[in-house]
């Protein structure tokens, strides 16, 4: 029975995200995401990308305008009590844009253990700064990532 990912596995996974995603390395998206992964962006009007193919199209569309992502301050949380092959992670991110401006926010990740190791099954990206128009976060969505839950 799995007790969830080791912290070093998650750090490696998030480091791979930055290298694979930011460098447009489409052939290695499967090292970071499950085949049915979802990226839910809460910036601007909000967008959602379902599955590796849609994520690859998104990465390709960003091209040279892809932000340079840094994942920080990750807190690991238990996943579903019914499935020991799941976990959650809550992280802060910094994204440096091509013009040198910096954005930051939070990642809320559902992680899943696959035959090839831990992968991101769902990533909700919620911006903090710069202040501006952000897509609303559905009420209750982030409750599972509360660090004080269960205290």
From TrEMBL:
<dbReference type="Pfam" id="PF13577">
    <property type="entry name" value="SnoaL_4"/>
</dbReference>
<dbReference type="InterPro" id="IPR032710">
    <property type="entry name" value="NTF2-like_dom_sf"/>
</dbReference>
<protein>
    <recommendedName>
        <fullName>SnoaL-like domain-containing protein</fullName>
    </recommendedName>
</protein>
<feature type="domain" description="SnoaL-like">
    <location>
        <begin position="6"/>
        <end position="123"/>
    </location>
</feature>
<dbReference type="InterPro" id="IPR037401">
    <property type="entry name" value="SnoaL-like"/>
</dbReference>
